[in-house]
Design brief:
With 64 residues, this protein is mainly β. The protein is built from no helices and four strands. 8% of the residues are buried. The protein binds zinc ion.
């Protein structure tokens, strides 16, 4: 994965971010299988948390 840079609130400067990704499967309230992909970005210098993104994807392997 390519590195990104963003403003680190801890360093108060632009820093390279380290991205970690985790995927978990859940069932929503209507019984649909969904996949939640969470990207977490941490500052390379201080290790502090900068931001995260949740992406909800319908699990196509389950099918409808
Ligand atoms: Zn930092």
């Amino acid at each position: 994965m390519e590195s990104q840079t963003d403003h680190c609130p801890h360093c108060r400067a632009n820093r390279t971010l380290i991205c970690t990704q985790s995927v978990r499967k859940e069932t929503d309230q209507t019984g649909k299988k969904v996949r939640i992909r969470t990207l977490s970005f941490h500052c390379e210098v201080c290790g502090g948390f900068v931001r995260s993104e949740d992406r909800v994807e319908i699990d196509k392997k389950i099918g409808f």
